[in-house]
Design a protein that fits this description.
Elements lengths: L1 E8 L3 H12 L4 E5 L6 H6 L1 H19 L15 H25 L3 E11 L2 E6 L4 E11 L3 E3 L12 E2 L1 H4 L8 E5 L3 H12 L3 E6 L10 H13 L3 E4 L1 E8 L4 E7 L5 E6 L1 E4 L3 E3 L32 E3 L10 H15 L13 E3 L4 E6 L2 H6 L4 E7 L4 H6 L5 E7 L5 E8 L2 H13 L4 H6 L9 H9 L8
Parallel strand pairs: 1-2, 1-5, 2-3, 5-16, 7-14, 8-9, 8-14, 9-10
Antiparallel strand pairs: 3-4, 4-5, 6-15, 11-12, 12-13, 17-18, 18-21, 19-20, 20-21
Protein backbone atom coordinates (compact mmCIF):
# COMPACT_ATOMS: atom_id res chain seq x y z
CA UNK A 1 0.00 0.00 0.00
CA UNK A 2 1.39 3.38 -1.04
CA UNK A 3 1.38 6.23 1.48
CA UNK A 4 1.43 9.93 0.62
CA UNK A 5 1.33 13.25 2.41
CA UNK A 6 -1.50 14.40 0.13
CA UNK A 7 -3.64 12.79 -2.56
CA UNK A 8 -5.67 14.89 -4.99
CA UNK A 9 -8.71 13.32 -6.64
CA UNK A 10 -9.27 14.88 -10.05
CA UNK A 11 -6.67 16.31 -12.44
CA UNK A 12 -8.50 19.36 -13.73
CA UNK A 13 -7.08 22.89 -13.27
CA UNK A 14 -7.85 22.88 -9.55
CA UNK A 15 -6.47 19.40 -8.95
CA UNK A 16 -3.29 19.48 -10.98
CA UNK A 17 -2.36 23.00 -9.80
CA UNK A 18 -2.92 21.90 -6.19
CA UNK A 19 -0.67 18.90 -6.84
CA UNK A 20 2.09 21.09 -8.28
CA UNK A 21 1.99 23.51 -5.35
CA UNK A 22 1.96 20.66 -2.81
CA UNK A 23 5.01 19.13 -4.52
CA UNK A 24 6.77 22.50 -4.64
CA UNK A 25 6.27 22.75 -0.87
CA UNK A 26 7.94 19.39 -0.27
CA UNK A 27 4.94 17.10 0.12
CA UNK A 28 4.90 13.55 -1.22
CA UNK A 29 2.00 14.00 -3.63
CA UNK A 30 -0.22 11.79 -5.78
CA UNK A 31 -3.04 12.65 -8.15
CA UNK A 32 -5.86 10.30 -9.17
CA UNK A 33 -7.61 10.86 -12.49
CA UNK A 34 -10.32 8.68 -14.05
CA UNK A 35 -9.78 9.97 -17.61
CA UNK A 36 -7.04 8.62 -19.84
CA UNK A 37 -5.60 12.13 -20.02
CA UNK A 38 -4.97 14.85 -17.45
CA UNK A 39 -6.55 18.30 -17.47
CA UNK A 40 -10.12 17.48 -16.48
CA UNK A 41 -13.18 18.94 -18.17
CA UNK A 42 -11.47 22.27 -18.83
CA UNK A 43 -8.63 20.99 -20.97
CA UNK A 44 -10.39 17.98 -22.52
CA UNK A 45 -13.99 19.04 -23.22
CA UNK A 46 -14.37 22.57 -21.85
CA UNK A 47 -12.34 25.77 -21.75
CA UNK A 48 -9.52 24.86 -24.12
CA UNK A 49 -11.39 23.11 -26.98
CA UNK A 50 -14.21 25.65 -26.91
CA UNK A 51 -11.74 28.55 -27.18
CA UNK A 52 -10.01 26.80 -30.08
CA UNK A 53 -13.34 26.58 -31.94
CA UNK A 54 -14.28 30.13 -30.95
CA UNK A 55 -11.07 31.43 -32.51
CA UNK A 56 -11.51 29.32 -35.66
CA UNK A 57 -15.08 30.45 -36.15
CA UNK A 58 -14.12 34.09 -35.60
CA UNK A 59 -11.43 33.83 -38.28
CA UNK A 60 -14.01 32.49 -40.73
CA UNK A 61 -16.58 35.11 -39.80
CA UNK A 62 -14.08 37.92 -40.29
CA UNK A 63 -13.00 36.48 -43.61
CA UNK A 64 -16.59 36.28 -44.83
CA UNK A 65 -17.91 39.53 -43.32
CA UNK A 66 -15.06 41.96 -42.68
CA UNK A 67 -12.15 41.25 -45.00
CA UNK A 68 -13.80 42.99 -47.96
CA UNK A 69 -14.05 46.22 -45.98
CA UNK A 70 -10.35 45.92 -45.19
CA UNK A 71 -9.57 45.60 -48.90
CA UNK A 72 -8.93 41.86 -48.80
CA UNK A 73 -10.70 39.90 -51.52
CA UNK A 74 -11.38 36.18 -51.23
CA UNK A 75 -13.07 33.71 -53.54
CA UNK A 76 -14.82 30.42 -52.82
CA UNK A 77 -14.49 30.78 -49.05
CA UNK A 78 -15.72 27.68 -47.22
CA UNK A 79 -15.60 25.93 -43.86
CA UNK A 80 -13.61 22.70 -43.53
CA UNK A 81 -15.27 21.55 -40.33
CA UNK A 82 -13.29 18.34 -40.10
CA UNK A 83 -10.02 20.29 -40.17
CA UNK A 84 -11.41 22.73 -37.60
CA UNK A 85 -12.20 19.85 -35.24
CA UNK A 86 -8.80 18.27 -35.98
CA UNK A 87 -6.99 21.50 -35.05
CA UNK A 88 -9.09 21.80 -31.89
CA UNK A 89 -8.09 18.28 -30.86
CA UNK A 90 -4.44 19.04 -31.55
CA UNK A 91 -4.63 22.00 -29.17
CA UNK A 92 -6.25 19.77 -26.54
CA UNK A 93 -3.67 17.02 -26.95
CA UNK A 94 -0.74 19.43 -26.65
CA UNK A 95 -2.20 21.08 -23.57
CA UNK A 96 -2.97 17.79 -21.81
CA UNK A 97 0.52 16.52 -22.61
CA UNK A 98 1.85 19.68 -21.01
CA UNK A 99 0.10 18.82 -17.75
CA UNK A 100 1.55 15.31 -17.84
CA UNK A 101 5.00 16.88 -18.29
CA UNK A 102 4.41 19.08 -15.24
CA UNK A 103 3.42 16.08 -13.13
CA UNK A 104 6.64 14.31 -14.07
CA UNK A 105 8.75 17.44 -13.60
CA UNK A 106 7.42 17.88 -10.06
CA UNK A 107 7.75 14.15 -9.23
CA UNK A 108 4.01 13.74 -8.64
CA UNK A 109 2.70 10.18 -8.72
CA UNK A 110 -0.08 9.96 -11.32
CA UNK A 111 -2.67 7.21 -10.92
CA UNK A 112 -5.21 6.69 -13.71
CA UNK A 113 -8.44 5.30 -12.32
CA UNK A 114 -11.59 6.02 -10.31
CA UNK A 115 -11.01 6.59 -6.61
CA UNK A 116 -13.49 5.88 -3.81
CA UNK A 117 -12.92 6.37 -0.09
CA UNK A 118 -12.77 3.26 2.06
CA UNK A 119 -12.36 5.52 5.08
CA UNK A 120 -11.07 9.04 5.72
CA UNK A 121 -7.44 7.99 5.20
CA UNK A 122 -7.77 5.28 2.56
CA UNK A 123 -8.67 5.48 -1.11
CA UNK A 124 -9.44 2.46 -3.25
CA UNK A 125 -8.71 3.04 -6.93
CA UNK A 126 -10.26 1.02 -9.75
CA UNK A 127 -7.43 1.44 -12.25
CA UNK A 128 -8.18 2.07 -15.90
CA UNK A 129 -6.20 -1.03 -16.86
CA UNK A 130 -8.63 -3.24 -14.94
CA UNK A 131 -6.48 -3.67 -11.85
CA UNK A 132 -7.07 -2.04 -8.46
CA UNK A 133 -4.91 -0.18 -5.98
CA UNK A 134 -5.26 1.06 -2.43
CA UNK A 135 -3.50 4.21 -1.26
CA UNK A 136 -3.37 6.12 2.00
CA UNK A 137 -2.67 9.75 2.77
CA UNK A 138 -2.57 12.23 5.63
CA UNK A 139 -4.66 14.65 3.59
CA UNK A 140 -6.99 14.42 0.60
CA UNK A 141 -8.14 17.18 -1.75
CA UNK A 142 -11.32 16.47 -3.70
CA UNK A 143 -11.19 18.28 -7.05
CA UNK A 144 -13.56 16.18 -9.16
CA UNK A 145 -15.24 19.12 -10.86
CA UNK A 146 -18.70 19.11 -12.42
CA UNK A 147 -20.73 17.65 -15.27
CA UNK A 148 -23.51 19.01 -17.51
CA UNK A 149 -26.96 19.22 -15.96
CA UNK A 150 -29.12 16.99 -18.18
CA UNK A 151 -32.62 16.48 -16.73
CA UNK A 152 -34.51 13.42 -17.99
CA UNK A 153 -37.22 15.60 -19.51
CA UNK A 154 -34.77 16.75 -22.20
CA UNK A 155 -34.31 13.17 -23.48
CA UNK A 156 -30.57 13.59 -23.86
CA UNK A 157 -29.16 11.03 -26.30
CA UNK A 158 -25.76 12.51 -27.14
CA UNK A 159 -26.67 12.48 -30.85
CA UNK A 160 -29.37 15.06 -31.54
CA UNK A 161 -29.99 16.25 -27.99
CA UNK A 162 -26.45 17.06 -26.92
CA UNK A 163 -24.35 18.58 -24.16
CA UNK A 164 -21.32 20.84 -24.53
CA UNK A 165 -19.15 17.72 -24.86
CA UNK A 166 -20.79 16.55 -28.09
CA UNK A 167 -21.07 20.13 -29.39
CA UNK A 168 -17.27 20.17 -29.60
CA UNK A 169 -17.23 17.20 -31.98
CA UNK A 170 -19.76 18.10 -34.70
CA UNK A 171 -17.84 17.70 -37.96
CA UNK A 172 -20.31 19.27 -40.39
CA UNK A 173 -21.85 22.71 -40.01
CA UNK A 174 -25.47 22.28 -38.85
CA UNK A 175 -28.22 24.18 -40.63
CA UNK A 176 -29.97 24.89 -37.34
CA UNK A 177 -29.49 24.50 -33.60
CA UNK A 178 -31.59 25.20 -30.52
CA UNK A 179 -29.58 26.21 -27.46
CA UNK A 180 -31.34 25.71 -24.13
CA UNK A 181 -29.92 28.25 -21.71
CA UNK A 182 -28.56 31.76 -22.16
CA UNK A 183 -25.56 31.33 -19.90
CA UNK A 184 -21.85 31.28 -20.69
CA UNK A 185 -21.61 27.79 -22.21
CA UNK A 186 -24.71 28.12 -24.38
CA UNK A 187 -23.72 31.53 -25.71
CA UNK A 188 -20.11 30.59 -26.43
CA UNK A 189 -20.92 27.40 -28.30
CA UNK A 190 -24.01 28.89 -29.90
CA UNK A 191 -21.93 31.77 -31.25
CA UNK A 192 -19.36 29.34 -32.69
CA UNK A 193 -21.99 27.78 -34.94
CA UNK A 194 -23.81 31.05 -35.63
CA UNK A 195 -20.56 32.48 -37.03
CA UNK A 196 -20.19 29.43 -39.26
CA UNK A 197 -23.67 29.93 -40.69
CA UNK A 198 -25.94 27.88 -38.41
CA UNK A 199 -29.35 29.32 -37.55
CA UNK A 200 -29.17 29.44 -33.76
CA UNK A 201 -32.15 29.90 -31.44
CA UNK A 202 -31.55 30.45 -27.71
CA UNK A 203 -34.30 29.58 -25.23
CA UNK A 204 -33.86 31.24 -21.83
CA UNK A 205 -36.24 30.95 -18.86
CA UNK A 206 -35.52 34.42 -17.44
CA UNK A 207 -35.78 37.77 -19.20
CA UNK A 208 -32.17 38.11 -20.37
CA UNK A 209 -28.93 36.31 -21.15
CA UNK A 210 -26.15 36.08 -18.54
CA UNK A 211 -28.58 36.60 -15.65
CA UNK A 212 -25.83 36.63 -12.99
CA UNK A 213 -23.87 39.41 -14.72
CA UNK A 214 -24.52 43.13 -14.89
CA UNK A 215 -27.62 44.02 -16.90
CA UNK A 216 -25.77 46.47 -19.11
CA UNK A 217 -23.45 43.67 -20.19
CA UNK A 218 -26.43 41.46 -21.00
CA UNK A 219 -27.99 44.19 -23.14
CA UNK A 220 -24.75 44.92 -25.02
CA UNK A 221 -24.03 41.29 -25.81
CA UNK A 222 -27.63 40.58 -26.81
CA UNK A 223 -27.45 43.36 -29.40
CA UNK A 224 -24.21 41.98 -30.81
CA UNK A 225 -25.41 38.39 -30.96
CA UNK A 226 -28.62 39.45 -32.69
CA UNK A 227 -26.48 41.11 -35.37
CA UNK A 228 -24.84 37.71 -35.77
CA UNK A 229 -28.27 36.27 -36.53
CA UNK A 230 -28.94 34.53 -33.23
CA UNK A 231 -32.60 34.47 -32.15
CA UNK A 232 -33.63 34.74 -28.49
CA UNK A 233 -36.74 33.44 -26.77
CA UNK A 234 -36.72 35.05 -23.32
CA UNK A 235 -39.18 33.98 -20.62
CA UNK A 236 -39.59 30.64 -22.37
CA UNK A 237 -38.98 27.08 -21.22
CA UNK A 238 -38.26 23.86 -23.06
CA UNK A 239 -40.88 21.29 -22.12
CA UNK A 240 -39.43 18.35 -23.99
CA UNK A 241 -37.65 17.12 -27.08
CA UNK A 242 -38.27 14.41 -29.66
CA UNK A 243 -35.33 13.27 -31.73
CA UNK A 244 -35.08 11.31 -34.95
CA UNK A 245 -31.99 10.07 -36.74
CA UNK A 246 -31.47 13.40 -38.51
CA UNK A 247 -33.21 16.09 -36.47
CA UNK A 248 -34.85 17.05 -33.20
CA UNK A 249 -38.14 18.78 -32.43
CA UNK A 250 -38.01 21.04 -29.38
CA UNK A 251 -41.29 21.83 -27.63
CA UNK A 252 -41.23 25.29 -26.03
CA UNK A 253 -43.65 26.97 -23.63
CA UNK A 254 -43.97 30.70 -23.10
CA UNK A 255 -43.45 31.26 -19.39
CA UNK A 256 -46.56 32.12 -17.37
CA UNK A 257 -48.72 31.25 -20.37
CA UNK A 258 -50.44 28.33 -22.09
CA UNK A 259 -48.82 29.28 -25.38
CA UNK A 260 -46.45 26.67 -26.80
CA UNK A 261 -44.74 25.95 -30.12
CA UNK A 262 -42.17 23.66 -31.69
CA UNK A 263 -38.80 24.37 -33.29
CA UNK A 264 -37.29 21.71 -35.52
CA UNK A 265 -33.50 21.74 -35.69
CA UNK A 266 -30.50 19.61 -36.49
CA UNK A 267 -29.38 19.71 -32.85
CA UNK A 268 -30.61 20.75 -29.43
CA UNK A 269 -27.74 21.83 -27.16
CA UNK A 270 -28.70 21.60 -23.48
CA UNK A 271 -26.66 24.22 -21.60
CA UNK A 272 -28.59 24.95 -18.42
CA UNK A 273 -25.62 24.73 -16.11
CA UNK A 274 -23.43 22.13 -14.46
CA UNK A 275 -23.73 20.07 -11.29
CA UNK A 276 -21.00 18.93 -8.87
CA UNK A 277 -19.47 15.53 -9.61
CA UNK A 278 -19.50 13.64 -6.32
CA UNK A 279 -21.10 10.24 -7.00
CA UNK A 280 -18.96 7.17 -6.61
CA UNK A 281 -16.47 8.86 -4.29
CA UNK A 282 -17.54 6.85 -1.24
CA UNK A 283 -18.14 10.02 0.76
CA UNK A 284 -20.56 8.08 2.96
CA UNK A 285 -17.50 6.27 4.35
CA UNK A 286 -15.79 9.48 5.43
CA UNK A 287 -18.28 11.74 7.19
CA UNK A 288 -17.99 14.35 4.42
CA UNK A 289 -21.34 16.10 4.04
CA UNK A 290 -23.09 17.69 1.06
CA UNK A 291 -25.26 20.81 1.06
CA UNK A 292 -28.79 21.11 -0.35
CA UNK A 293 -27.42 21.62 -3.88
CA UNK A 294 -25.20 18.56 -3.84
CA UNK A 295 -22.00 20.51 -3.25
CA UNK A 296 -19.42 19.42 -0.67
CA UNK A 297 -19.69 21.46 2.51
CA UNK A 298 -16.48 23.25 3.48
CA UNK A 299 -15.36 25.99 5.85
CA UNK A 300 -13.53 29.14 4.77
CA UNK A 301 -10.32 27.11 4.44
CA UNK A 302 -11.94 24.49 2.14
CA UNK A 303 -11.86 21.87 4.91
CA UNK A 304 -14.81 19.49 4.75
CA UNK A 305 -16.70 18.11 7.74
CA UNK A 306 -13.89 15.53 7.95
CA UNK A 307 -10.77 17.50 9.06
CA UNK A 308 -8.15 15.85 6.83
CA UNK A 309 -10.27 16.02 3.64
CA UNK A 310 -10.52 19.23 1.63
CA UNK A 311 -12.57 20.14 -1.45
CA UNK A 312 -12.06 22.81 -4.11
CA UNK A 313 -13.43 24.01 -7.44
CA UNK A 314 -16.77 23.07 -8.94
CA UNK A 315 -17.65 20.63 -6.12
CA UNK A 316 -17.87 23.48 -3.58
CA UNK A 317 -19.87 26.71 -3.48
CA UNK A 318 -19.02 29.62 -5.74
CA UNK A 319 -18.59 30.21 -9.44
CA UNK A 320 -17.63 27.20 -11.55
CA UNK A 321 -14.46 28.65 -13.04
CA UNK A 322 -11.12 27.00 -13.75
CA UNK A 323 -9.12 29.91 -12.33
CA UNK A 324 -11.20 29.89 -9.14
CA UNK A 325 -10.36 26.20 -8.71
CA UNK A 326 -6.67 26.91 -9.28
CA UNK A 327 -6.59 29.63 -6.63
CA UNK A 328 -8.37 27.37 -4.16
CA UNK A 329 -5.95 24.53 -4.90
CA UNK A 330 -2.96 26.76 -4.19
CA UNK A 331 -4.68 28.04 -1.05
CA UNK A 332 -5.13 24.54 0.38
CA UNK A 333 -1.58 23.48 -0.52
CA UNK A 334 -0.05 26.50 1.17
CA UNK A 335 -2.27 26.16 4.20
CA UNK A 336 -1.19 22.51 4.60
CA UNK A 337 2.40 23.77 4.54
CA UNK A 338 1.70 26.13 7.44
CA UNK A 339 1.46 29.31 5.37
CA UNK A 340 -1.32 31.90 5.57
CA UNK A 341 -2.61 32.25 1.97
CA UNK A 342 -5.19 34.76 0.80
CA UNK A 343 -8.12 34.53 -1.60
CA UNK A 344 -10.93 37.04 -2.20
CA UNK A 345 -13.77 35.39 -4.08
CA UNK A 346 -15.33 38.79 -4.80
CA UNK A 347 -12.31 39.62 -6.95
CA UNK A 348 -12.30 36.49 -9.10
CA UNK A 349 -13.05 37.75 -12.63
CA UNK A 350 -15.64 36.16 -14.86
CA UNK A 351 -15.31 36.05 -18.65
CA UNK A 352 -17.55 35.09 -21.56
CA UNK A 353 -15.53 34.30 -24.70
CA UNK A 354 -18.07 35.32 -27.29
CA UNK A 355 -17.11 38.13 -29.68
CA UNK A 356 -17.35 40.72 -28.39
CA UNK A 357 -16.11 39.26 -25.13
CA UNK A 358 -17.66 39.97 -21.73
CA UNK A 359 -15.61 40.35 -18.56
CA UNK A 360 -16.46 41.45 -15.04
CA UNK A 361 -15.11 41.65 -11.51
CA UNK A 362 -16.70 42.73 -8.24
CA UNK A 363 -20.33 43.61 -7.66
CA UNK A 364 -22.96 44.39 -10.26
CA UNK A 365 -24.97 47.60 -10.16
CA UNK A 366 -28.06 45.55 -9.31
CA UNK A 367 -26.35 43.85 -6.35
CA UNK A 368 -25.07 47.14 -4.92
CA UNK A 369 -28.44 48.86 -5.23
CA UNK A 370 -30.17 45.89 -3.59
CA UNK A 371 -27.70 46.16 -0.70
CA UNK A 372 -28.45 49.86 -0.31
CA UNK A 373 -24.92 50.95 -1.22
CA UNK A 374 -24.62 54.50 -2.51
CA UNK A 375 -22.68 54.32 -5.78
CA UNK A 376 -21.50 56.31 -8.77
CA UNK A 377 -21.41 54.82 -12.26
CA UNK A 378 -19.29 55.74 -15.26
CA UNK A 379 -19.65 54.25 -18.75
CA UNK A 380 -17.75 54.62 -21.99
CA UNK A 381 -18.75 53.11 -25.36
CA UNK A 382 -16.30 51.21 -27.55
CA UNK A 383 -17.52 53.06 -30.63
CA UNK A 384 -15.82 56.21 -29.30
CA UNK A 385 -12.40 54.52 -29.37
CA UNK A 386 -10.08 55.15 -32.30
CA UNK A 387 -8.57 51.68 -31.83
CA UNK A 388 -12.01 50.06 -32.03
CA UNK A 389 -12.90 51.92 -35.21
CA UNK A 390 -9.57 50.92 -36.74
CA UNK A 391 -10.25 47.24 -36.08
CA UNK A 392 -14.02 47.46 -36.78
CA UNK A 393 -14.75 46.22 -33.24
CA UNK A 394 -17.08 49.02 -32.19
CA UNK A 395 -19.59 46.95 -30.19
CA UNK A 396 -19.29 47.15 -26.43
CA UNK A 397 -18.68 49.39 -23.44
CA UNK A 398 -16.80 49.64 -20.14
CA UNK A 399 -18.65 50.36 -16.92
CA UNK A 400 -16.96 51.37 -13.66
CA UNK A 401 -18.83 51.47 -10.35
CA UNK A 402 -17.41 53.16 -7.27
CA UNK A 403 -18.53 53.87 -3.72
CA UNK A 404 -20.23 57.28 -3.64
CA UNK A 405 -18.47 58.22 -0.39
CA UNK A 406 -14.99 56.69 -0.59
CA UNK A 407 -14.65 56.34 -4.40
CA UNK A 408 -13.34 52.78 -3.93
CA UNK A 409 -13.91 50.72 -7.08
CA UNK A 410 -16.65 48.18 -6.31
CA UNK A 411 -17.25 46.64 -9.73
CA UNK A 412 -16.03 46.82 -13.31
CA UNK A 413 -18.04 45.36 -16.20
CA UNK A 414 -16.90 45.22 -19.81
CA UNK A 415 -18.17 44.11 -23.20
CA UNK A 416 -15.86 44.42 -26.18
CA UNK A 417 -12.80 43.25 -28.04
CA UNK A 418 -10.08 41.81 -25.74
CA UNK A 419 -11.88 42.61 -22.48
CA UNK A 420 -10.94 39.11 -21.26
CA UNK A 421 -7.40 40.48 -20.97
CA UNK A 422 -8.32 44.05 -20.03
CA UNK A 423 -10.26 43.01 -16.91
CA UNK A 424 -6.99 42.33 -15.08
CA UNK A 425 -6.36 46.07 -14.75
CA UNK A 426 -9.52 46.28 -12.68
CA UNK A 427 -8.69 43.16 -10.66
CA UNK A 428 -5.23 44.49 -9.77
CA UNK A 429 -6.55 47.89 -8.76
CA UNK A 430 -9.37 46.40 -6.70
CA UNK A 431 -6.98 44.03 -4.90
CA UNK A 432 -5.25 47.18 -3.61
CA UNK A 433 -8.62 48.85 -2.94
CA UNK A 434 -7.93 51.61 -5.41
CA UNK A 435 -10.31 54.46 -6.14
CA UNK A 436 -11.90 55.29 -9.46
CA UNK A 437 -9.75 58.42 -9.40
CA UNK A 438 -6.65 56.19 -9.28
CA UNK A 439 -7.94 54.37 -12.37
CA UNK A 440 -8.66 57.68 -14.11
CA UNK A 441 -5.19 59.08 -13.36
CA UNK A 442 -3.26 56.13 -14.82
CA UNK A 443 -1.79 56.91 -18.24
CA UNK A 444 -3.13 54.45 -20.79
CA UNK A 445 -1.40 53.93 -24.16
CA UNK A 446 -3.03 55.27 -27.31
CA UNK A 447 -4.58 53.89 -29.39
CA UNK A 448 -5.74 50.90 -27.35
CA UNK A 449 -8.95 49.33 -26.16
CA UNK A 450 -7.80 49.96 -22.57
CA UNK A 451 -8.43 53.67 -23.00
CA UNK A 452 -12.09 52.81 -22.48
CA UNK A 453 -11.24 51.86 -18.89
CA UNK A 454 -9.69 55.24 -18.18
CA UNK A 455 -12.56 57.05 -19.90
CA UNK A 456 -15.20 55.11 -17.94
CA UNK A 457 -13.46 56.07 -14.69
CA UNK A 458 -13.36 59.70 -15.81
CA UNK A 459 -17.06 59.47 -16.67
CA UNK A 460 -17.93 58.97 -13.00
CA UNK A 461 -17.28 62.71 -12.59
CA UNK A 462 -18.53 63.69 -16.00
CA UNK A 463 -14.92 64.12 -17.17
CA UNK A 464 -14.79 61.63 -20.05
CA UNK A 465 -12.70 63.20 -22.77
CA UNK A 466 -13.97 61.55 -25.94
CA UNK A 467 -17.75 61.59 -25.56
Amino acid sequence: MQNFDVVIIGAGPGGYVAAIRCAQLGMNTAIVEKRKTLGGTCLNVGCIPSKALLDSSEHYHNASHAFGEHGIKLEKLQVDMKQMIKRKQSVVDQTCSGVEYLMNKNKITTIYGSGAFKDANTLEVALNDGESDTIQAKHFIIATGSKPNLPESFNYDGKRVISSTEALEIDTVPKSMVVVGGGVIGLELGSVYARLGTEVSVVEYVDRILPTMDKDCSKELTRSLKKLGMKFYFKHAVVGTKATAKSVTVNINKRDSEESFDIKADYCLVAIGRIPYTEGLGLENTGVKLDERGRIQTDDHFRTTTPNIYAIGDVVKGMMLAHKAEEEGVFVAEMLAGQKPHIDHNLIPGVVYTWPEVAAVGKTEEELKAAGTAIRVGKFPYKALGRARASMDIDGMVKVISDATTDEILGVHMVGARVADMIMEAVALMEFRASAEDMARICHPHPTYTEAVKEAALALDGRALHI
